[in-house]
Amino acid sequence: MNSPDSAQSPGPSARPPAATLEFRKATKRYPGQSDAAVDELSLTVASGEICVLVGPSGCGKTTAMRMVNRMIDITDGDILLDDSSVKERRPAELRRDIGYAIQQIGLFPHLSIADNIATVPRLLGWPKDRIRARVDELLELVSLDPAETRDRYPGQLSGGQRQRIGVARALAVDPPLMLMDEPFGAIDPINRERLQNEFLRLQREIRKTIVFVTHDIDEAIKMGDRIAVLQKGGKLAQYAPPAELLMYPDGRFVEDFVGADRALKRLALQRVRDIDLWKAPLVRVGESVAEARAKVADSDLPYPLLVDGDGRPIGWLSERALAGERVEDVRRSQAEPVVELDDVLRDALSDLLQHETQYGPVVDSRGAVAGVLSVEVIGHALKADPDDVRSGADALVEED
Amino acid sequence: MLDLLAQVELRDRSGEGASCVADDGLCPDWIVDNFDRYTDPLLQHVVLTVVSLAIGFSISFGMALLAHRRRWLVAPITQVTGILYTLPSLAVFFLLLPLTGRGNTTAIIALVSYSLLIIFRNVMAGLDNVPEETKDAGRGMGLTDRQLLWRVELPLALPEILAGLRIAATTTVGLATLAFFAGAGGLGEQIFSDIVFKSNVVTAGGLAVLLAVVLDALILLLQRAVTPWTRARAT
After folding, report:
1. Which overall architecture, per CATH, does domain B38-226 show?
2. Distance from C-alpha of A16 to C-alpha of A4, rounded to nearest angstrom
3. Domain A276-382 homologous superfamily, CATH
4. Backbone angles phi, psi at A172, to 5 degrees
5. How far apart are CA B140 and CA B150, in angstroms?
6. How far is A387 from chain B (nearest CA, A)?
7. What is the mean pLDDT of residues B167-185?
8. What integer pLDDT is reported at residue A189 of this predicted model?
């Protein structure tokens, strides 16, 4: 997508690349309303992590996010950005230090893409050539061609392109903290998935501290290093990494919110390479039958798996293949489905079910058999300690 | 009224092309020969219109900016300018005569008061139509209220603002033909100086229409020049 050093260009000053954020009993009450919009919210976001605020509508998640850059002022409690209170900063100055991306994007229709991205750099008085260089750099960072894009108006771009510009604009001065309110909410499902993956890859490079608001638990599980589930009245129901949230939902509300299929959702957090696979009894044509039988006895499987000279799976052998002295090519079935080490467990399980089989060979990037995945193995994986399950961002950025 | 009209000097119609002129007809030769009679009234008309528009725009624009941040001002301003708008302009001229006397001042006050509602309403509409998410994004990025107004809201309101100015311009050109009742001259004086002579009425009236069209086109050109984004389409 881009060179790794493109994201490391220094900001306006030698500021740290990512901030820490702490909500300390942060509360928002509107006059005339008995219930608080956000009620004594306390949580800490570590530097470089994505914290997802998720919950049903009216749970105060957007309010909580907007309190960080003082778009909404807190009534009680405090919010600390790098250990200093946001209440002590002038709102406009504070906001220039915090990236801001919203669902409706809010690009300025009367300004070119370059001028849109240059909004905050201009407010901070960057010199012209530095702004120009930064704009091109950011366009490349979000996979858009600078020469083709920079002089266009927002109205000339597709929804997905506008969304990327929104992210680029939020990143313009390399802010240590980003606020993102349903940034992919208005995009169709296919493009949303693409943008999510793209953003997770980007995040692996830029390692910003991010507060990400969504109402979609699947998006939360996918994007979050930690997820804060809020319920009506702005109360924090649980704050935990995705795997822990799915495995040990704290109370009825969270359990209902993450859904009855939470075990299946956890399968989306793990990859085949992360779990202990069955050892495959690999045999080649012409091998001694005694040796082949020994391999089968040593494995969890009833049949040997025939492989070619490079170790690629060909098929499951029948009893007749082992009738003579040497292994012959008599298959009971093809080696289908073939699962890849990088597949997430959810997709792998789906493959097995679709082929009406209990197990299938797993191959590495060269196509050679690395083990066998079975429904039983997946069952074991679900019982694993959530600490062993990597967070969404880490698991997904390795997709390509 | 009668003595006002009596002060208007009737044009000398003797001379060449006698029969057409004597019949009060439409005589191209007479128009060509006497065209210089219309330059001064036309200039007066232009000055009246442009000065009134400039003053009217400044006042309305200022009021709109005030009302944009203090919404409670919208209703009283709309009511007051609305009353000014509905007053018959002739009546305004005569009401003002004892106060400001005959001349440009009276005419301009009347013309300005007539343009206020049109321009004020359009500036307000333009500012109100700026998408909420655009303003939210601007504030969220750290624009102050003033920066948001001048860099985002007003540029985006330009199409409506200039549309209001176009309506006000054509209306003012028309109303300025009555300015001679206040003693401010203009093409109206020329028309009423000999209202039965077709050549005269057509020339003076035609010039007024032409002035309206030219002003309208100029503002339209200005609008196209300052709002390039409204024409940019996906390619």
Report:
1. Orthogonal Bundle (1.10)
2. 18
3. CBS-domain (3.10.580.10)
4. -55, -45
5. 16
6. 36
7. 87
8. 83
Give contacts of B137 with chain A, Cβ < 8 Å: 100, 102, 104-108, 166
With an 8 Å Cβ cutoff, are B133 and A153 in contact? no
Q: Is B138 in Cβ contact with A123 (below 8 Å)?
A: no
Task: Tell me whether B146 touches chain A (CB under 8 Å).
Answer: no
The CATH code that applies to domain A4-266 is: 3.40.50.300
Residue A113's pLDDT is what? 96
Q: Is the ipTM of this complex over 0.85?
A: no
User: Does residue B54 carry a pLDDT above 70?
Assistant: yes
Residue A251 CA to residue A230 CA, distance in Å, equals 12
> With an 8 Å Cβ cutoff, is B231 touching chain A?
no
| pLDDT surpasses 90 at A228 | yes
- The 10 Å Cβ neighbour count of residue B159 is 18
pLDDT digits (tens, 9 = 90+) for A378-394: 888 877 665 555 544 45
Q: Which of B137, B232, B234 sits opposite A106 (nearest CB)?
A: B137
Q: How many CB atoms lie within 10 A of CB A371?
A: 20
Is B136 an interface residue toward A (CB < 8 Å)? yes
Query: Residue ranges per domain, chain B?
Result: 38-226
The tens digit of pLDDT for each residue in A165-216 reads: 999 999 999 899 999 999 888 788 888 888 888 888 888 888 999 999 999 9
Residue B226 C-alpha, separation from nearest chain A C-alpha, in angstroms: 10
Question: Is the separation of the CB atoms in A225 and A392 below 8 Å?
Answer: yes
Are B140 and A120 inside 8 Å of each other by CB?
A: no
- The residue type of A361 is P
**Are A102 and B234 within 8 A, CB to CB?**
no
